Amino acid sequence: MQNTNSTVCNGLLKSIFNEKLGSVRNKIYFLSMILGWNMENEDVGIDRSLKLWALNFTSAILASESSSCSLSWVLDAKEPLVTSLLIPICEGSFLCEASYKVLQNMHSIVGGRLKSNNLSMLIEEILSKKEEINADISYLPLAVEMLVNKNKGEGAHMIDVLFTCVTDNGVPLHIRSAVLYSLSKINSKKILMQLIPIGNSYLDEIASLKGTLFNVTKSTFLYYILIRFVSENSAFLEIKGGWELFLRSLQMPDSVLQIQDKILSPQQLVINYKVLQKLSNSEKLLDVLEILLTRIVRTNLSVEASKLSKELKKISLSASQIISLWNKYNIIPKFKSVQEARAKRLKRQRESLPQSNIEDLQKLGLIIELIGVMEDLKNPSMLIGPICEYLKVLMEMESSFADTLQQQMLSVCHHLMTLCKTQLDKKEFIKQCKLNVALIVQCIRSSVNPDIHRRALLILALAAEYFPDQVLHNIMAIFTFMGTSLLRRDDAYSFHVIHLTIESIVPALIKAENAEPKVLLKKLSQVTQVFVDALPDLAEHRRLPLFTQLATTLGVSQYLWLLTHMFQEM
C-alpha cells in the first residue's frame, strides 16, 4: 500500500474496486473513509501518499459521472465526502490542491443544488477562498462565517445541517472535530447549547483520569469547544450552562490535553485576559478572580501559578470591586471591647495563624501586586484607608511573610497617593485620602527592615504636602530614625529617599512655624542636629551632596550659620 504511485498498484486497486465494491456509492464511501482517516492511528498503513491516491481516484470518478444526476447525493450533508475532505484540507501540504480538485468536480455535478440539505454553498466558498486558506488554515472558519453573513437564511440552514455531523456519534470523532473547527466563528445559541453537554462529559472523563493524558482526538474536540470562551463573542458565558462549563474548566489545572505538539490543561484554554475583559462590568468577574486567587495560592505547580498571575495582572478593576474582594477575607478582626482586642492580639503573637488566614493574606498580597501595576484605577483614594487598616494588623504579626506584605502595602499606598495627586486637587485629596500618618511613622519605629523604612518615608514625603500638621507632629521621630538608620546606609536608593524627605518635610516645617521664629529655630536646630550627629557615619562621598541640599532647603541666606555653628560644636 505504500507505493501507491506505481502503475501496477493503481491497476490492482482499480480491479479490486470494480470487482469487490461494485457501485459508485460504495466506492465513494470507501474513498471517503481513507480521506477522513485519522493519521494519529499508526497501526493502519494509511499515509499522505495513499490519501493523495484516494483524492485523485475520487476526482476521476466524479469527473466521469458529473454529467448525470446520479451523483447529486454526494453533496448531501449527511453523506461523508464533503466532511471527509475537510481533513486533508486542514492537514495542508500537497493534499490541498488535490482536495480542491475533488471539490471542483463536486461543484460541477448536475442537480446537486436541488437537494434540500446540499453543501454546494460551502464548496463554492472554500473554492473561492482557497488561496487564503492555503496560506493560513485559520482562514477556513472565517470563510464559513462570511458565507453565513452573506446568505442569512440559506447560510443558517446549511450550518444547522452541517452541525448535525458534529453531534452525530456515528461520525468519526476526528471528522466531527474538523467540522467543528470550520464552524469556530459560528456562535449561535443553538450550537452552543449542544456543545455544553459534550464539553461536560469530556471534563467528567478528564476528572476520572486523575492526571493521565486524555485521548488525542477527544483533546482536539474539547479544545475546539473551550476556545469559544476566548473568542471575540462572549455568548458562551451568557447562556445557561456555559458559565458553569467555564468555571469547571477554570478549576482543572492538570495538563492532560494533547493538542498538536503541546500538553495543555482545560484551565489554560479558558483563562485569557479577553475573557476577563468581557466580564469587567459583571459580578461574575469577582467569582472568577476568587477562583484564580485560590488556585494560585493552593497550587503546587509553579507553571500554573505563573500563568494565572500573568493573566491576573492584565485585569482592570475598580476600587469598589477590590474592596468587595477584600471584604470576603478574614484578616481584620472585629472586637466588642478593648480588652478582647488586647487578648486576641497577644494570642496571635504567641500562636501561628490558621491556614485560612494565611490563604487570605496571600490573596491580599496578590491583589496588592495587581493594584501596583494598574495605572487606570478609578477612585484610588477609596483604597488608602483599608490599606492602613491592613498595615495595622500586619504590624502585630511576627513572620517574614507579614514583613514582605507590609513592604508591598507601603509601596501600593505610595502608588495610590501618586494617582490621587494626578486625579484630585489639593482640597479633594485631603478630603478623600484617609491616610493614617501616625501608623506610617509607627511602621518605621517598629521595624528593622530598611525596605520598610524607605517605603514609609516616601509616603511621608508625599503626605507632608497635604497633611503637614500630622507629619510635623512626628517630625523628630522621622528624622531621629533617619539619623540612626538610613543615614548609615551607603546606597543610592536610601539617599534618594533622604533627599525626598528633606525636600518635602523641611519646607513644610518652615511654612508651618514661620509665625513663631523662636519655635521654628528650635525645631530646625533639632532636625539639623540629627544630620550633624550622623556625620561620622556618613560615607565621605555622600557628605557634601547631603549637606548642600540641607543648607539649600533651609535657606542659605537665613540658616547657613546654623549648620556652621553646629559643626563647630562637634
From TrEMBL:
Residues 524-565 form the Utp10/HEAT1 HEAT-repeats domain. It is found in: Nucleus, Nucleolus. Keywords: Nucleus, Ribonucleoprotein, Ribosome biogenesis, rRNA processing. GO terms for cellular component: 90S preribosome; small-subunit processome; t-UTP complex. One of its GO terms (molecular function) is snoRNA binding. GO terms for biological process: maturation of SSU-rRNA from tricistronic rRNA transcript (SSU-rRNA, 5.8S rRNA, LSU-rRNA); positive regulation of transcription by RNA polymerase I. Pfam families: HEAT_HEATR1 (PF23243). Involved in nucleolar processing of pre-18S ribosomal RNA. PANTHER family: BAP28, HEAT REPEAT-CONTAINING PROTEIN 1. Belongs to the HEATR1/UTP10 family. This is HEAT repeat-containing protein 1. It comes from Armadillidium nasatum. The lineage of its organism: Eukaryota, Metazoa, Ecdysozoa, Arthropoda, Crustacea.
